[in-house]
Amino acid sequence: xxxxxxxxxxxxxxxxxxxxxxxxxxxxxxxxxxxxxxxxxxxxxxxxxxxxxxxxxxxxxxxxxxxxxxxxxxxxxxxxxxxxxxxxxxxxxxxxxxxxxxxxxxxxxxxxxxxxxxxxxxxxxxxxxx
Length: 130
Hints:
Layout: H1 2-14, H2 16-27, H3 36-51, E1 55-58, E2 63-66, E3 98-100, E4 103-105, H4 112-129
Antiparallel strand pairs: 1-2, 3-4
Helix pairs in contact: 2-4
């Protein structure tokens, strides 16, 4: 198990910039609930999951991505819509997706959109590392 853990850590380290870029790309879409951008972010998420071999099904307000087959399933859930930008942003604009040190700032970067990127990269890791 230790070798597998090290292999996953090395994979994440090697792909850090791609992971960060995926999250920043999602944060830059002002996907406030009920707007056209909320639909646009779902389109982008579905495309990203399809690129890693998942079957992505889109509906009006959500998308489902299924990866692999078999009898055992793991569900990873999140949402791509965010609340309005609000006021008093100090590190960046709400939909900038700014990297400061080891942190990413922007609406959705620390909750809903980060969970989408985690789910995406878990699938990539499983696919790429077998």
